[in-house]
Amino acid sequence: QLQKDLEEVKELLTRATRKRLRDVLMTEKHKLELEIKNQPVPKPKDVVEEEKSSLGGYTVKINNYGWDQSDKFIKIYISLSGVQKLPAENVQVNFTERSFDLLVKNLNGKNYTMTFNNLLKPISVEGSSRKIKTDTVLVMCRKKREEKWDCLTQVEKESKEKEKAAYDTSDPSEGLMNLLKKMYAEGDDEMKRTINKAWVESREKQSKGDIPMDI
pTM for this one? Predict the structure, then answer.
């Protein structure tokens, strides 16, 4: 599917004449090429079938994890009770430059999977590995460059930037308004009553001319 999208973008590029449109298409082309490059290599059908038949049970998607980092590694900790009792080959991790897939087979009659796509920065496939500890799988992603990561994935970074932009503004009164809205939306009944009361009192003071009111 990605390959078809890429071919269509290339076709549109040959027809586009306006610079702005060409720039947008070029950006999309590079993005698609990167996604295709980072896709795991497809396995032969017979290998896939063999893996399916060896799995048995049902598969659970892992959502809970912890992570840490050193100068050289990103470390992801996944808690799985009794995982150290499994044969080593039952714990598999496939790495690409910007992703990894974890598969734990036949742990207490279940299979466990975890996928991380669009890692924040490139990793070294050859330098990455996994370690099995008591009730824990440790995935070690070797950084290509020894630098601090602010988060694990590109999606997390974009989400943080959007949230920051929503509440970080050059207009202090606008920033305060956004902050109040966030507190009101996330607060309990007591918090909402407090904010409402403060708002009413501020409006009353403004109407009397006691204080300037920008929000």
Answer: 0.53
Give me the domain span that covers residue 114: 59-143
Tens-place pLDDT, residues 95-107:
999 999 999 999 9
Q: pLDDT tens, 35-51?
A: 877 776 665 555 555 55
The answer on 34 and 10 residing in a single domain is yes
Q: How many angstroms separate the Cα of 177 from the Cα of each of 104, 162, 169, 171, 200?
A: 48, 17, 11, 10, 14
Please count the other Cβ atoms lying within 10 Å of the Cβ belonging to residue 105: 20
Cα–Cα nearest to 150, from 142, 160, 140: 160
CATH number of the domain where residue 7 is located: 4.10.860
- What is the arrangement of strands in the sheet containing 73-79, beginning at the earlier edge strand? 66-69, 73-79, 136-143, 123-133
Count CA within 13 A, CB hemisphere, residue 215: 16
Q: How far apart are CA 32 and CA 127, in angstroms?
A: 26
Chain centre to alpha carbon of residue 113: 16
Residue 80 has pLDDT above 80, yes or no: yes
